[in-house]
Amino acid sequence: MIPLIKDRITAFQSLGKKLKKTAHAIDKENPSLTDTPAEKELFNAGINASLHNAWFTKENVCKSLEALGHMLMEEKLVKWIEEYPELFNTGKVQPKTVAVIMAGNIPMVGFHDFLCVLISGHRFLGKLSSQDKKLPVCIGNLLLEINPGFKESIGFKEGPVAGFDAAIATGSNNSARYFDYYFGKYPHIIRKNRSSLAVLNGNESKEELTALGEDVFSYFGLGCRNVSKLMVPANYSFDRLREAWKNWEGLINHSKYFNNYDYQKAVLLVNKEPHTDVGFCLLKEDVGLSSPVSMIYCEKYPDQTQLEKYLKSWKGDLQCIVASPQIKIQAAETLPFGKSQQPELWDYADGVDTLRFLINL
Predict the structure, then answer these.
(1) Same-domain check for residues 162 and 59
(2) Has this prediction a pTM greater than 0.85?
(3) Residue of 96, 113, 108, 14 whose CA lies nearest to 67
(4) What local confidence, expressed as pLDDT, does residue 343 receive?
(5) N or C terminus of the chain: which is more exposed, having fewer CB within 10 Å?
(6) Are residues 188 and 200 in the same domain?
(7) Closest by alpha carbon to 276, among 238, 227, 221?
(8) Sign of the dihedral defined by the CA atoms of residues 72, 350, 214, 210, in that order
(9) At what angle do helices 74-81 and 5-28 cross, to 10 degrees?
(10) Same domain, 179 and 318
(11) How far is residue 100's CA from residue 174's CA, in Å, rounded to a whole number?
Protein backbone atom coordinates (compact mmCIF):
# COMPACT_ATOMS: atom_id res chain seq x y z
CA MET A 1 0.00 0.00 0.00
CA ILE A 2 1.31 3.44 -0.94
CA PRO A 3 2.28 5.51 2.14
CA LEU A 4 -0.03 8.35 3.16
CA ILE A 5 0.95 11.86 2.07
CA LYS A 6 2.24 12.82 5.52
CA ASP A 7 4.44 9.72 5.54
CA ARG A 8 5.65 10.44 2.02
CA ILE A 9 6.66 13.95 3.06
CA THR A 10 8.43 12.66 6.18
CA ALA A 11 10.29 10.06 4.12
CA PHE A 12 11.63 12.66 1.67
CA GLN A 13 12.67 14.92 4.55
CA SER A 14 14.71 12.04 5.93
CA LEU A 15 16.09 11.31 2.46
CA GLY A 16 17.32 14.88 2.17
CA LYS A 17 19.28 14.57 5.41
CA LYS A 18 20.82 11.28 4.33
CA LEU A 19 21.81 12.70 0.94
CA LYS A 20 23.66 15.55 2.65
CA LYS A 21 25.30 13.10 5.04
CA THR A 22 26.44 10.83 2.22
CA ALA A 23 27.69 13.81 0.20
CA HIS A 24 29.92 14.70 3.16
CA ALA A 25 31.21 11.13 3.34
CA ILE A 26 31.98 11.09 -0.38
CA ASP A 27 33.72 14.46 -0.16
CA LYS A 28 35.93 13.15 2.65
CA GLU A 29 36.25 9.75 0.94
CA ASN A 30 35.42 8.23 4.31
CA PRO A 31 32.95 5.30 4.25
CA SER A 32 32.86 5.20 8.06
CA LEU A 33 30.72 8.37 7.94
CA THR A 34 27.87 6.25 6.52
CA ASP A 35 25.82 3.88 8.66
CA THR A 36 23.24 1.89 6.71
CA PRO A 37 23.64 -0.50 3.76
CA ALA A 38 21.85 1.89 1.39
CA GLU A 39 24.02 4.82 2.50
CA LYS A 40 27.13 2.74 1.87
CA GLU A 41 25.79 1.70 -1.54
CA LEU A 42 25.26 5.34 -2.52
CA PHE A 43 28.70 6.22 -1.14
CA ASN A 44 30.38 3.59 -3.32
CA ALA A 45 28.38 4.66 -6.38
CA GLY A 46 29.38 8.28 -5.80
CA ILE A 47 33.06 7.49 -5.28
CA ASN A 48 33.16 5.37 -8.44
CA ALA A 49 30.81 7.44 -10.61
CA SER A 50 33.63 8.89 -12.73
CA LEU A 51 34.69 5.37 -13.75
CA HIS A 52 31.38 5.00 -15.60
CA ASN A 53 31.01 8.62 -16.72
CA ALA A 54 34.07 10.85 -16.63
CA TRP A 55 31.90 13.98 -16.33
CA PHE A 56 30.55 12.69 -12.98
CA THR A 57 33.48 13.75 -10.83
CA LYS A 58 33.39 13.33 -7.08
CA GLU A 59 32.92 17.07 -6.73
CA ASN A 60 29.94 17.12 -9.07
CA VAL A 61 28.27 14.15 -7.39
CA CYS A 62 28.68 15.87 -4.02
CA LYS A 63 27.34 19.14 -5.42
CA SER A 64 24.24 17.36 -6.75
CA LEU A 65 23.59 15.44 -3.52
CA GLU A 66 23.98 18.63 -1.48
CA ALA A 67 21.56 20.48 -3.76
CA LEU A 68 18.98 17.71 -3.45
CA GLY A 69 19.39 17.67 0.31
CA HIS A 70 18.82 21.42 0.43
CA MET A 71 15.76 21.05 -1.80
CA LEU A 72 14.22 18.46 0.55
CA MET A 73 14.33 20.58 3.70
CA GLU A 74 11.12 20.35 5.74
CA GLU A 75 10.03 23.96 5.29
CA LYS A 76 10.51 23.76 1.52
CA LEU A 77 8.56 20.54 1.17
CA VAL A 78 5.70 21.91 3.28
CA LYS A 79 5.57 25.18 1.33
CA TRP A 80 5.51 23.26 -1.95
CA ILE A 81 2.88 20.70 -0.99
CA GLU A 82 0.53 23.28 0.55
CA GLU A 83 -0.20 24.52 -2.98
CA TYR A 84 -1.80 21.15 -3.79
CA PRO A 85 -4.47 20.46 -1.13
CA GLU A 86 -5.85 17.59 -3.23
CA LEU A 87 -2.89 15.50 -2.11
CA PHE A 88 -4.33 15.36 1.39
CA ASN A 89 -7.56 13.79 0.13
CA THR A 90 -6.64 10.11 0.43
CA GLY A 91 -9.39 9.05 -1.95
CA LYS A 92 -8.45 11.56 -4.66
CA VAL A 93 -5.44 9.88 -6.31
CA GLN A 94 -5.90 6.55 -8.08
CA PRO A 95 -2.32 5.25 -8.43
CA LYS A 96 -1.03 5.11 -12.01
CA THR A 97 2.30 3.90 -13.35
CA VAL A 98 4.30 6.81 -14.76
CA ALA A 99 7.20 6.06 -17.07
CA VAL A 100 10.01 8.60 -16.65
CA ILE A 101 12.69 8.72 -19.35
CA MET A 102 15.64 10.08 -17.41
CA ALA A 103 18.43 12.27 -18.80
CA GLY A 104 22.06 11.76 -17.83
CA ASN A 105 23.80 15.05 -18.54
CA ILE A 106 24.42 15.82 -14.85
CA PRO A 107 24.25 13.51 -11.81
CA MET A 108 20.69 12.55 -10.80
CA VAL A 109 19.12 15.17 -13.06
CA GLY A 110 15.88 13.15 -13.08
CA PHE A 111 15.39 13.30 -9.32
CA HIS A 112 12.67 15.97 -9.39
CA ASP A 113 10.46 13.77 -11.59
CA PHE A 114 11.14 10.84 -9.24
CA LEU A 115 10.04 13.02 -6.32
CA CYS A 116 6.94 14.36 -8.06
CA VAL A 117 5.68 10.94 -9.11
CA LEU A 118 6.07 9.46 -5.64
CA ILE A 119 4.84 12.48 -3.66
CA SER A 120 1.71 12.52 -5.85
CA GLY A 121 0.94 8.92 -4.89
CA HIS A 122 1.70 7.31 -8.24
CA ARG A 123 4.11 4.52 -9.18
CA PHE A 124 7.50 5.48 -10.64
CA LEU A 125 8.97 3.49 -13.55
CA GLY A 126 12.31 5.01 -14.49
CA LYS A 127 14.12 4.39 -17.77
CA LEU A 128 17.74 4.90 -16.79
CA SER A 129 20.14 6.90 -18.93
CA SER A 130 23.27 5.00 -19.98
CA GLN A 131 25.20 7.96 -18.55
CA ASP A 132 23.66 7.67 -15.07
CA LYS A 133 22.69 4.07 -14.35
CA LYS A 134 23.70 3.69 -10.71
CA LEU A 135 23.04 6.84 -8.69
CA PRO A 136 19.23 6.99 -9.23
CA VAL A 137 18.88 3.33 -8.22
CA CYS A 138 20.94 3.93 -5.08
CA ILE A 139 18.73 6.88 -4.12
CA GLY A 140 15.66 4.72 -4.70
CA ASN A 141 17.12 2.07 -2.40
CA LEU A 142 17.89 4.69 0.20
CA LEU A 143 14.27 5.86 0.14
CA LEU A 144 13.08 2.25 0.48
CA GLU A 145 15.34 1.83 3.49
CA ILE A 146 13.68 4.87 5.06
CA ASN A 147 10.14 3.73 4.21
CA PRO A 148 9.67 0.20 2.79
CA GLY A 149 6.08 1.18 1.94
CA PHE A 150 7.42 2.54 -1.36
CA LYS A 151 8.49 -0.95 -2.50
CA GLU A 152 5.65 -1.40 -4.99
CA SER A 153 6.00 2.19 -6.21
CA ILE A 154 9.63 2.29 -7.40
CA GLY A 155 11.03 0.53 -10.44
CA PHE A 156 13.99 1.12 -12.76
CA LYS A 157 14.77 -0.31 -16.18
CA GLU A 158 17.69 0.03 -18.57
CA GLY A 159 15.78 -1.26 -21.60
CA PRO A 160 12.43 -0.25 -23.13
CA VAL A 161 9.60 0.52 -20.72
CA ALA A 162 6.12 -0.99 -20.96
CA GLY A 163 2.97 -1.24 -18.88
CA PHE A 164 2.63 2.43 -18.00
CA ASP A 165 -0.29 4.88 -17.91
CA ALA A 166 1.52 8.20 -18.45
CA ALA A 167 4.98 9.38 -19.39
CA ILE A 168 7.50 12.12 -18.65
CA ALA A 169 10.41 12.22 -21.09
CA THR A 170 13.45 14.47 -21.19
CA GLY A 171 15.82 14.56 -24.13
CA SER A 172 17.08 16.43 -27.16
CA ASN A 173 14.96 18.05 -29.85
CA ASN A 174 15.60 14.98 -32.02
CA SER A 175 14.59 12.46 -29.35
CA ALA A 176 11.49 14.55 -28.59
CA ARG A 177 10.11 13.62 -32.01
CA TYR A 178 10.51 9.96 -31.13
CA PHE A 179 8.91 10.56 -27.73
CA ASP A 180 5.97 12.31 -29.38
CA TYR A 181 5.38 9.24 -31.54
CA TYR A 182 5.93 6.66 -28.81
CA PHE A 183 4.02 8.38 -26.00
CA GLY A 184 1.48 10.30 -28.07
CA LYS A 185 -1.50 8.21 -27.00
CA TYR A 186 -0.70 8.57 -23.28
CA PRO A 187 -0.90 11.63 -21.02
CA HIS A 188 2.63 12.99 -21.23
CA ILE A 189 5.17 15.73 -20.64
CA ILE A 190 7.92 15.86 -23.23
CA ARG A 191 10.86 18.19 -22.67
CA LYS A 192 13.21 19.37 -25.41
CA ASN A 193 16.52 21.22 -25.45
CA ARG A 194 16.61 24.32 -23.28
CA SER A 195 19.40 26.76 -22.55
CA SER A 196 20.07 29.47 -19.97
CA LEU A 197 21.66 32.87 -20.32
CA ALA A 198 22.95 35.80 -18.29
CA VAL A 199 22.27 39.47 -18.87
CA LEU A 200 25.12 41.84 -18.00
CA ASN A 201 25.26 45.64 -18.08
CA GLY A 202 28.91 46.21 -17.17
CA ASN A 203 28.21 47.45 -13.63
CA GLU A 204 28.33 44.04 -11.93
CA SER A 205 30.47 43.70 -8.82
CA LYS A 206 33.35 41.24 -8.67
CA GLU A 207 31.26 39.14 -6.28
CA GLU A 208 28.42 38.96 -8.80
CA LEU A 209 30.75 37.96 -11.62
CA THR A 210 32.36 35.33 -9.41
CA ALA A 211 28.91 33.95 -8.64
CA LEU A 212 28.14 33.94 -12.38
CA GLY A 213 31.03 31.51 -12.75
CA GLU A 214 28.99 29.03 -10.72
CA ASP A 215 26.13 29.36 -13.22
CA VAL A 216 28.45 28.86 -16.17
CA PHE A 217 30.87 26.17 -15.03
CA SER A 218 29.02 23.96 -12.52
CA TYR A 219 28.82 20.41 -13.88
CA PHE A 220 31.16 21.53 -16.71
CA GLY A 221 28.28 23.57 -18.14
CA LEU A 222 26.38 20.44 -19.19
CA GLY A 223 23.02 21.27 -17.57
CA CYS A 224 20.13 23.09 -19.20
CA ARG A 225 20.25 25.49 -16.25
CA ASN A 226 23.92 26.28 -16.91
CA VAL A 227 24.50 29.67 -18.53
CA SER A 228 25.75 29.08 -22.07
CA LYS A 229 25.23 32.61 -23.42
CA LEU A 230 26.00 36.12 -22.22
CA MET A 231 23.99 39.15 -23.31
CA VAL A 232 26.28 42.17 -23.00
CA PRO A 233 26.09 45.87 -23.94
CA ALA A 234 28.13 47.32 -26.77
CA ASN A 235 31.83 47.87 -25.93
CA TYR A 236 31.62 45.41 -23.00
CA SER A 237 35.07 44.40 -21.69
CA PHE A 238 35.59 40.75 -20.76
CA ASP A 239 38.73 41.46 -18.73
CA ARG A 240 36.85 41.43 -15.41
CA LEU A 241 35.42 37.99 -16.18
CA ARG A 242 38.93 36.61 -16.62
CA GLU A 243 39.79 37.72 -13.08
CA ALA A 244 36.47 36.76 -11.48
CA TRP A 245 36.50 33.22 -12.91
CA LYS A 246 40.01 32.27 -11.76
CA ASN A 247 38.57 29.72 -9.30
CA TRP A 248 37.50 27.60 -12.28
CA GLU A 249 40.91 27.38 -13.95
CA GLY A 250 41.25 23.80 -12.72
CA LEU A 251 38.64 22.65 -15.25
CA ILE A 252 41.41 22.56 -17.82
CA ASN A 253 42.95 19.60 -15.93
CA HIS A 254 39.92 17.43 -16.69
CA SER A 255 40.80 15.46 -19.82
CA LYS A 256 37.36 15.49 -21.47
CA TYR A 257 36.88 19.19 -20.77
CA PHE A 258 40.38 19.99 -22.05
CA ASN A 259 39.78 17.99 -25.23
CA ASN A 260 36.67 20.07 -25.91
CA TYR A 261 38.51 23.31 -25.18
CA ASP A 262 41.46 22.31 -27.37
CA TYR A 263 39.23 21.29 -30.27
CA GLN A 264 37.02 24.39 -30.15
CA LYS A 265 40.07 26.66 -29.92
CA ALA A 266 41.66 24.97 -32.92
CA VAL A 267 38.49 25.46 -34.99
CA LEU A 268 38.37 29.15 -34.10
CA LEU A 269 42.03 29.65 -34.98
CA VAL A 270 41.83 27.76 -38.27
CA ASN A 271 38.73 29.70 -39.30
CA LYS A 272 40.25 32.96 -38.02
CA GLU A 273 37.11 33.69 -36.01
CA PRO A 274 37.37 36.48 -33.40
CA HIS A 275 37.15 35.23 -29.83
CA THR A 276 38.41 35.81 -26.31
CA ASP A 277 40.46 33.04 -24.71
CA VAL A 278 40.11 33.14 -20.92
CA GLY A 279 42.70 30.38 -20.60
CA PHE A 280 40.27 27.58 -19.87
CA CYS A 281 37.17 28.69 -21.80
CA LEU A 282 36.42 30.57 -24.99
CA LEU A 283 34.11 33.55 -25.44
CA LYS A 284 32.74 33.85 -28.95
CA GLU A 285 30.26 36.32 -30.41
CA ASP A 286 27.37 34.20 -31.72
CA VAL A 287 23.58 34.52 -32.07
CA GLY A 288 23.05 30.93 -30.90
CA LEU A 289 21.85 29.96 -27.43
CA SER A 290 23.40 26.58 -26.71
CA SER A 291 27.18 26.65 -26.86
CA PRO A 292 29.60 23.67 -26.87
CA VAL A 293 31.39 22.59 -23.71
CA SER A 294 34.24 25.03 -22.87
CA MET A 295 32.72 27.79 -25.05
CA ILE A 296 30.33 30.60 -24.13
CA TYR A 297 28.35 32.48 -26.74
CA CYS A 298 28.13 36.25 -26.38
CA GLU A 299 25.79 38.69 -28.06
CA LYS A 300 25.59 42.47 -27.77
CA TYR A 301 22.32 44.28 -27.22
CA PRO A 302 22.13 47.94 -28.30
CA ASP A 303 19.52 48.99 -25.72
CA GLN A 304 16.93 47.72 -23.24
CA THR A 305 14.14 47.65 -25.84
CA GLN A 306 16.09 45.37 -28.15
CA LEU A 307 17.13 43.19 -25.22
CA GLU A 308 13.48 42.65 -24.29
CA LYS A 309 12.69 41.69 -27.89
CA TYR A 310 15.52 39.15 -27.91
CA LEU A 311 14.35 37.56 -24.66
CA LYS A 312 10.73 37.36 -25.80
CA SER A 313 11.73 35.69 -29.07
CA TRP A 314 13.69 33.02 -27.17
CA LYS A 315 11.04 32.37 -24.52
CA GLY A 316 10.33 28.80 -25.61
CA ASP A 317 14.03 27.91 -25.63
CA LEU A 318 15.15 29.36 -22.29
CA GLN A 319 15.23 27.47 -19.02
CA CYS A 320 16.30 30.40 -16.86
CA ILE A 321 17.92 33.85 -16.95
CA VAL A 322 20.38 35.21 -14.40
CA ALA A 323 20.99 38.91 -13.92
CA SER A 324 21.75 41.50 -11.28
CA PRO A 325 18.67 42.81 -9.42
CA GLN A 326 19.58 46.27 -10.74
CA ILE A 327 18.67 45.09 -14.26
CA LYS A 328 14.91 45.33 -14.69
CA ILE A 329 13.65 42.86 -17.29
CA GLN A 330 9.98 42.77 -18.26
CA ALA A 331 10.08 39.80 -20.64
CA ALA A 332 10.94 37.16 -18.03
CA GLU A 333 11.73 36.50 -14.39
CA THR A 334 15.40 36.42 -13.46
CA LEU A 335 17.51 34.70 -10.85
CA PRO A 336 20.43 36.22 -8.93
CA PHE A 337 23.91 35.29 -10.09
CA GLY A 338 25.03 31.93 -8.72
CA LYS A 339 21.52 30.50 -8.33
CA SER A 340 20.77 28.86 -11.68
CA GLN A 341 21.80 25.41 -10.43
CA GLN A 342 19.90 25.74 -7.16
CA PRO A 343 16.26 25.33 -8.27
CA GLU A 344 13.47 25.21 -5.72
CA LEU A 345 10.87 22.45 -5.69
CA TRP A 346 8.42 24.72 -7.48
CA ASP A 347 10.88 25.67 -10.26
CA TYR A 348 9.52 23.24 -12.82
CA ALA A 349 11.54 22.33 -15.91
CA ASP A 350 10.25 24.10 -19.03
CA GLY A 351 7.71 25.92 -16.84
CA VAL A 352 5.35 22.90 -16.85
CA ASP A 353 3.84 22.08 -13.45
CA THR A 354 4.81 18.42 -13.18
CA LEU A 355 3.01 17.82 -9.92
CA ARG A 356 -0.25 19.33 -11.21
CA PHE A 357 0.02 17.09 -14.31
CA LEU A 358 0.39 14.04 -12.07
CA ILE A 359 -2.45 14.99 -9.72
CA ASN A 360 -4.79 15.41 -12.69
CA LEU A 361 -4.07 11.99 -14.22
Answers:
(1) yes
(2) yes
(3) 108
(4) 92
(5) N
(6) no
(7) 238
(8) negative
(9) 140
(10) no
(11) 18
